[in-house]
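Standup notes, structure subgroup. Blocker cleared on the beta-D-glucopyranuronic acid input:
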Amino acid sequence: MLYPILTKTRSLYDLSGLWHFKLGDHDPKELLSSEELMVVPTSFNDVIVDKDKRNYIGDFWYERFVDIPEIAENAELVLRFGSVTHNATIYVNGRQLASHKGGFTPFEVVVPEDLYQDSQLKVSVCANNVLDYTTLPVGNYSEEFQKDGSVKKVVRENFDFFNYAGIHRPVKLMVRPKTHISDVTITSELSDDLASAELSIAVETSAAVDAISVSIFDEDRQLVAQTRDGHAILDNVRLWEVLDAYLYTAHIELFVDGKVVDTYDEPFGVRCVDVADGQFFINHKPVYFKGFGKHEDTFINGRGLNEAANLMDMNLLKEIGANSFRTSHYPYSEEMMRLADRMGILVIDEIPAVGLFQNFTATLDLSPKDLGTWSIMKTKEAHEQVIRELVKRDKNHPSVVMWVVANEPASHEAGAHAYFEPLVALYKTLDPQKRPVTLVNILMATPDRDEVMDLVDVICLNRYYAWYVDHGDLVRGEAGLRKELLEWQSKFPDKPILMTEYGADTLPGLHSMWDIPYTEEFQCDFYEMTHGVFDEIPNLVGEQVWNFADFETNLMIFRVQGNHKGLFSRNRQPKQVVRDFKKRWTAIPNYNYKKK
Ligand code: BDP
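Run returned:
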């Protein structure tokens, strides 16, 4: 799906700001009272302040009026939502126009012409934040009877982050030609010496046109190539490299009767990604991932788009010598993906397939027994839908170098292989760049028990030795970690291993002379221990710390106002260990660290 931009043929209006808001029922044929207000984009939960409202589950409404701009005969009016978490139904002037399931991907709604005969549109959004065994993420849904006889909807998250909800990303009103560019897919084939690239640029249109022209511009805005039948050669190509991004722009024009009817600019980078011999190659060089699992999580905004925080996070990431992040545990905003492209940061792109583990957070049972997850989950449809939507949205991003099919599913339980095989295949079929696909494996699914890692290209592991296993014991933790990594390496010698999570909760300012968990000293020692082991394992091609920053969670016995595994606090202040990381990561090159 195309990111909304302003071009000669397209106008764009931002609907950010104050909307009328209500938790509960509303008839969109009536006016929503102006009693309660909400900002778009943001999560409603923290902004609303009241405790019961913060934890509200069910339908909630946004409404506002919008003046209708000039719309030519051959143009159409479109409402475009970056994301509404988790479900949305859109009404204009009281008429239901569309619904979208899933809280982390964009969707658009064409407003029928008869609705813009008036001077204003009334836009009403019915959002809903229920999560259950059919949704991604997975939630434990129940209904509780209250003293007054009413029913309260409750969702216990089956995952470790707060169930923030709302209109999380920008809402735009677009006027675009009826005959328009509806999609573009860019792939490149590099020559063996990486000096030139053959580009294929497939443009989809909403209606037949006489001609499509695509001109390629470099960063100096110089024309460097033009396509013929969707193909072009880029000589002396400047590659998109890790932390040295180079972005070309494909300027697309549609012609009807000799006139330009639509134009669109898509930035793209040229690079190749391969996995072989236990290594992960970018532009034929083995790369070492240094970075983080993250969250979209800031004070006040919750999970709502916070572009200043995004840029600050990426600057901190570079400052500490890192080069990558994973969009744990859901697709991040399109704004963040474009930022990563621009800054040369590697992205492991994840869908909200988290909580695929029967009643996990409630039982907190780390023993590897079969809880019947795969006969209980009804998530297949949501899973397929979000893979389709993510690939469509992110397929052209050079920063995206791998797709994640799920985070920490019960991959050691019967039925896991059958569940994941078609989903991994779906990614492979849909992705025009054929990027590697991974599954982020949970600690109970050790090499002897796991049933799915044969399906994926890279072994991604979340391991908490000396934290959830052998808590506080760095000696036993070290031995356990080493043993398991060696087992994975010998089970799949050709697959690279990436540590996608490892970490220890740490409260800044808490100190000890001894190895006491939660202190800053323990966090330093914990990482020193794990890094020593990582450096011994030839196939281990990267380390992504859990987590970049402390973040908000649901209430659990081991969460002290959130998860504190961040290297930075929630307000982005460094913990003591940041200095150690900076030393280590600035000394580790992006390429050839583990060259065999
Ligand atoms: C892993 C999850 C992550 C949690 C983390 C933790 O992937 O979402 O926040 O552990 O426990 O299980 O800190």
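Discussed briefly. Residues 474-491 form the longest helix (18 residues).
Next: hand off to the docking folks.
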